[in-house]
Structure formats: structure tokens, C-alpha cells
Amino acid sequence: MGRHILSAFFLLSLLSAAVATADRIDDEDDLLIRQVTDDDDHLLNAEHHFSIFKSNFGKIYATKEEHDYRFGVFKANLRRAKLHQKLDPSAVHGVTKFSDLTPSEFRQKYLGLKPLRLPADANKAPILPTSDLPKDFDWRDHGAVTGVKDQGSCGSCWSFSTTGALEGAHFLSTGELVSLSEQQLVDCDHECDPEEYGSCDSGCNGGLMNNAFEYTLKAGGLMREEDYAYTGTDRGPCKFDKSKIAASVANFSVISIDEDQIAANLVKHGPLAVGINAVFMQTYMHGVSCPYICGKHLDHGVLIVGYGAAGYAPIRFKEKPYWIIKNSWGESWGENGYYKICKGRNICGVDSMVSSVAAPHITKQ
Q: pTM for the full model?
């Protein structure tokens, strides 16, 4: 019995030290970069890995100084990926398209969910029966999900989460899958949460999916992607043309943190807009992410499109279910643009901010 207690204490101490190191990596990027040396075992082939990275992702740097700086950042991220691998052994972490960005640069350019609470007057989704839920479910198999998109270096993830949910809802209502315009939301949506100062949707500087649903409801709908193409910037004027609305919002609601209710709403209402803590996503390559410890601070908007019953089987969890998440960083990230994260304990806050949307039923003439 004593050995088990000591083992548990040792594991807890190891995790605490690892998390403390992770915090330092996030908060002291430049200090870490200066500390990285070629003497570390896992950095012995750093130059080789950096050459492959540049080739795979078409990375070109304007000056030797920029190149050398990015190489330093890359080496720091090799160390960070190794730490993430220890904290999240059921996924594979390593070199990704973001490996030459410091964590702070990554947050600034590729996240963008406003750190807000849900409005007190949000419409709460009714409780649904959960006894007959399928064991596995994926809206990609039923035609309700468009291809993976790429937000570029613009903090507009919230707009992609919004369009993804409405694309699914519109499909369920009409049988038509239409790719909707994120750029309309980036340019035209300045909706605010009246309970929160500074909570307005603001293009590449972040936003909130429920605000975007509210904007879409008031505006009458969203245009097609092909009619209002994505540019990845927020410097242009609003070009919304009401005569070209392709999909509308009938209503939207907030789902409770209960995972069975989230699954039931997913199956009944289509893909769901969710917030998540993306700290492990910068180094994620594939597999089911189930970190030992992950913050609940939500900084990225994504889309739950399905779930699986048992995608991995580490000793500590046996076979555990997972969510299937569509991201907006292109197909060259993750599992062809998708992320898997385990269900069961609100990992990385994935159950904390979940919304469904409904589209009007339209009968085609």
C-alpha cells in the first residue's frame, strides 16, 4: 500500500513540475529560446529537422538574422513538443507548420476566441433523451460538413466555428451543403455582449460565436463563400449583399456542460460551435489528445462534428471515447485539418462553451 502511495505522489510531483515548465515556456518565450543549446540530446539533429520543416511548409526568411532567430524558436518548440508528448502521451506531438512561432505569436495570429463568459440571458438548450445515442457518430459521413478551411494568420477562428455550425444546420433544414462566408463576419459583424465591456466581435482581433449567431440573426443571414471570399484580413469595408443570402439563423442555444447532452444535441442539431484551450494544439500531429492537465481558459473557436467510442487505450484510461473536431488551420495541420480530444472530463474546457444553431426550414421550389 505504501509503495502505491509513494508512486502516486511521485507521479503528481512529476506532473506539477512539467506543468510549471509548460507555464514558463508559454510566458517566457525569449528566455527559453536563449536557454536552448545544441547539447540537448533531442536537439542534436535540429538543423536537419529545420531544413525538412522549411521544405515541407515552404518557409522562406527575408534575412539571415530572421532565419537564425526562427531557428532558435524552432529549437525551443522541439523542447516544447517533447514536454507536450510527456503530458499528452495518447497523441503524437512534434514539428508542425507552427514550429517557427513562439507561443505568444501563435496565440496572437492563430487563436482569437474572446475570453468571455456566456451571456446570462442565453437561450438554454432543452434537455434531450440520451438513452439511444449511437456509439459512434460523424456528420462528415452524412454530408453536413464542408471541407477544412484555413483562417491564415488572422484571429478569426470564431467566424469559422460559426459558419461551420450554420453550414450543418442549413444542411439539416434544406438538404443543401453550402460553404458560407467567414469574411462577411470578419468585415461586418461588430456585435457585442452587453454584459461584458470590450466583448465585441472584431475581425482578426477575435470574437465570440454566440455574438456572431446574433449578428447573423439580425442581418438576415450569411452569403456564400464564393460570393464573399475570405481574404484573411480585416481592413476592408463590409460588402454584405442581402440579396445574396445563402443561409439564415432561426435560433441558437447554449448547451449544458454535460457530455451526454452535448452528444445528443450534436446528433439532433448538427455540428456544434465550441471553445477550447489550444495550448496543446500548436505541437499536435495526430492521435487522441488527452493531456494529464490542461487549462480551462478558452482561446480558440472550433467545431465538434462527431465522436468516437474508443480511439486509443493507454493503461490509465482503458478505451476512452473522444470528440472529433474540425479546425480552421488548413489540411496540413493535425489529422488532415482535424483534432481528436478525449471525452469525459471537460479536457481543455471543450465542454464549457458549446452552442447549437438552427436554420429555417426552406422548401425548394
A: 0.86
